[in-house]
Each structure stands twice: as structure tokens, then as C-alpha cells.
From TrEMBL:
It comes from Salinomyces thailandicus. The keyword Disulfide bond does not apply. Substrate binds at residues 81, 87, 119, 153. Keywords: NAD, Oxidoreductase, Tricarboxylic acid cycle. Residues 1-145 form the Lactate/malate dehydrogenase N-terminal domain. GO terms for molecular function: L-malate dehydrogenase (NAD+) activity. Homodimer. It is an enzyme of class 1 (oxidoreductase). Residues 147-322 form the Lactate/malate dehydrogenase C-terminal domain. This is Malate dehydrogenase. Belongs to the LDH/MDH superfamily. MDH type 1 family. CDD domains: MDH_glyoxysomal_mitochondrial (cd01337). The lineage of its organism: Eukaryota, Fungi, Dikarya, Ascomycota, Pezizomycotina. NAD(+) binds at residues 7-13, 33, 94, 117-119, 229. Its EC number is 1.1.1.37.
Length: 327
């Protein structure tokens, strides 16, 4: 299993690379960034784990060398938010960065699983899909927008109500997109079931939707979530790799092009959104099946979903348009 981190020297990239270096499923780890990869690579190379590590800068065909032979590429490259910015404000810069990296994947590792972390995910995943389509290499089952941090936050924030010792034991489907009101946690579908007092529900949902802002504010200009994101990105990457190696029954929400995933068509029809995050069962070839959990939402959640559809459709079109009509 060769894993690549593109954007490996950044706030997310470094701890994510550390976790992948320590992961026994990874045989080879290639780090790619426009700065500092030699240092990060030298540092991580002293860790006594299985993964052999290589680091590349753009010079001397670095991107090609990093991506060639990759089985999984995780992309946290791009600028993060500062206080007062929305994820959409990042579009101008990050759209081009993701486009360039995914173009590289189309050329050098077209069969790899591609995990997009760079924001705004609601637009960067459609950008990635359009780039791959243009290159004739699009496989919807292997292109994932990483929304796991929203799931991780839901598990953590609901703990104050459940009192569970290990918050990760409560499974909460978080669906829709990955920004503000497009993030829809379905607490009604939690397993085991969770009873949330009515007067606490609005605040809990709001905290999941805008949890990223807490971190941006606390970091006070020094960026957005990096450590919790690296944990979440690793958790998702590990699931993809475990499924690739044959483990069955792995399900995690992720933002995908639904018409290209079994079971996705009916969800796309119901939501009016071709891209949407739902719990997806993972297998050797990527997504095996998208679960139509949208139909199980209660009336409160249906209202949240109406708002989600509105915002998400615009974000998706913006991404598609960026590739169709370059600025
Ligand atoms: P950062 O600025 O610390 O790191 C980004 C890294 O990308 C830098 O090392 C930079 O040199 C590198 N980079 C820039 N252009 C590149 C290119 N063309 N090729 C390769 N590397 C390139 O930013 P941070 O905090 O690590 O965040 C990265 C992205 O992840 C941001 O877009 C942020 O909004 C997003 N993010 C996504 C989350 C999610 O839940 N999906 C959560 C938190 C952040």
C-alpha cells in the first residue's frame, strides 16, 4: 500500500503524515508539498515503523515521483481559514491547487483512491471530479470528500448528553456537505439511540455545523483545525485502506458523486444534489454502496436538510463551473 500526502508540510499535513507513517497498513509513504518536505521527511524517517518514506518538492518532477504507484492520495493542500472567513472564501486559491494535484493523479495514479480534505470540500470535490472526467479517468467510487471531522465532532459534542466514556462508540450519521448549514447531523439515527432534550438540540446542531469556527477563533489568525482534522483524515484513510485489504462491513459518511455510486441515484434524486455526504459502505474497489439515510430524517432534520440543499447546490455548481469555464 503506497500512500501519498499532498500538502504534507502543512498544519494538517504534518500530523497526518505522522499517523500514516505509524500505520502498519502503509508500506510506502510519499510526502509532497511546495515547501519543507525534505525536513518533514527526514524527521519522520527516524520513526521505527514499517512505512518507507520519501519526500518531494515540485522540482525534478517531484509530483510525478510522489504520485506514481500510489494506491491512496490524501490532499490537505491549500490555505486555511482566518477569523471572519467562510470556507467559500478559500475557493479562489484552493480551487486551482486541487485542480493541479488531481490532474497529477489523473496522469500518474489514475486508479488511486483520492481523499480531498482541502476546503471548500463542497466545491473542491466537484472540481476533482471534473478534472478526472476531462482526463477520461473518473471513477466516482474512488473519489471522496473527507467530512469525517463533522462526524468526530458530533460524537464528541453529544458525549455531554450521553455520558458515554468513549464518545467514538456512538455512531452518528452526519450528511449533506461540509460547511455551516450544509452540515446535517442526524441525531435521530444515532446508534445506540440518543435522547437529546429538546431545549439542547438547536445548540448541539449549531455546534456541529460551526464547530470549525471555535478553532479558527481560538487560533486567532494562526489557521483552522489541524490536529483534530489530521485525526479525522487518518481515521477515514485507515478505513479506506482496511476495506481495500478486504475487511468488510466498514461504513463511514463521505461526500461523493452519487450517480456514480451504487444506491446513490435515488439519494441524488431525493436531495436534488449530485454530490452529497451519506454513510457509504467501503470495499476493495472503493464505495460499494451509498445508504439512503435521508429518508429516515425526522421533521426537525428535514428542515435542516432543506437549508442544506439550497447552499450545497450553489457550492457544487461553482466547482463544476471553475473547470468548465476557467477564470
Ligand atoms: P496549511 O497552510 O498549514 O498547510 C497547507 C499546505 O499545503 C502548506 O504546507 C502548503 O505549502 C501546501 N500547498 C500549497 N499549495 C500546494 C500545492 N500546489 N501542492 C502541494 N502542496 C501545496 O493549511 P492546513 O491548516 O493544513 O489546511 C489545509 C486545508 O485543509 C485548508 O484548505 C483547510 O481549509 C482544509 N481543512 C479541511 C477540513 C475538513 O474537514 N475537510 C478541516 C480543516 C481544514
Amino acid at each position: 500500500m503506497k500512500a501519498v500526502v499532498a500538502g504534507a508540510s502543512g498544519g494538517i499535513g504534518q500530523p497526518l503524515s505522522l499517523l500514516l507513517k505509524a500505520c502498519p497498513l502503509v508500506d510506502k509513504l510519499a510526502l509532497y508539498d511546495v515547501v519543507n518536505t525534505p525536513g518533514v521527511t527526514a524527521d519522520l524517517s527516524h520513526i521505527s515503523s514499517i512505512a518507507q518514506i520519501e519526500g518531494y518538492l515540485p522540482a525534478d518532477d517531484g509530483m510525478k515521483k510522489a504520485l506514481t504507484g500510489a494506491d491512496i492520495v490524501v490532499i490537505p493542500a491549500g490555505i486555511p481559514r482566518k477569523p471572519g472567513m467562510t470556507r467559500d472564501d478559500l475557493f479562489k486559491i484552493n480551487a486551482g491547487i486541487v485542480q493541479g494535484l488531481v490532474q497529477g493523479c489523473a496522469e500518474h495514479c489514475p486508479d488511486a483512491y483520492i481523499l480531498v480534505i482541502s476546503n471548500p470540500v463542497n466545491s473542491t470535490v466537484p472540481i476533482a471530479a471534473e478534472v478526472l472526467k476531462k482526463a477520461g479517468k473518473f471513477n466516482a467510487k474512488k473519489l471522496f470528500g473527507v467530512t469525517t471531522l463533522d462526524v468526530v465532532r458530533s460524537e464528541t459534542f453529544v458525549q455531554s448528553i450521553t455520558g458515554e466514556r468513549d464518545p467514538s462508540k456512538t455512531v452518528i450519521p452526519v450528511i449533506g456537505g461540509h460547511s455551516g448549514e450544509t452540515i446535517v447531523p442526524l441525531f435521530s439515527q444515532a446508534k445506540p439511540a440518543v435522547k437529546i432534550p429538546e431545549d439542547k438540540l438547536d445548540a448541539l446542531v449549531n455546534r456541529v455545523q460551526f464547530g470549525g469556527d471555535e478553532v479558527v477563533k481560538a487560533k486567532d489568525g494562526a489557521g483552522s483545525a489541524t490536529l483534530s482534522m489530521a485525526y479525522a483524515g487518518y481515521r477515514f484513510a485507515e478505513k479506506v485502506m482496511k476495506a481495500a485489504k478486504g475487511e468488510s462491513g466498514i461504513i463511514e459518511p463521505t461526500f461523493m458523486y452519487l450517480p456514480g455510486v451504487p444506491g446513490g441515484d435515488e439519494i441524488a434524486k431525493a436531495t436534488g444534489c449530485e454530490y452529497f455526504s451519506v454513510p457509504v459502505e467501503l470495499g476493495k474497489e472503493g464505495a460499494l454502496k451509498a445508504t439512503n439515510i435521508v429518508k429516515d430524517a425526522n421533521d426537525y432534520e428535514k428542515k435542516l436538510l432543506e437549508k442544506c440543499y439550497e447552499g450545497l447546490k450553489g457550492n457544487i455548481s461553482k466547482g463544476i463551473d471553475f473547470v468548465a469555464n476557467p477564470p
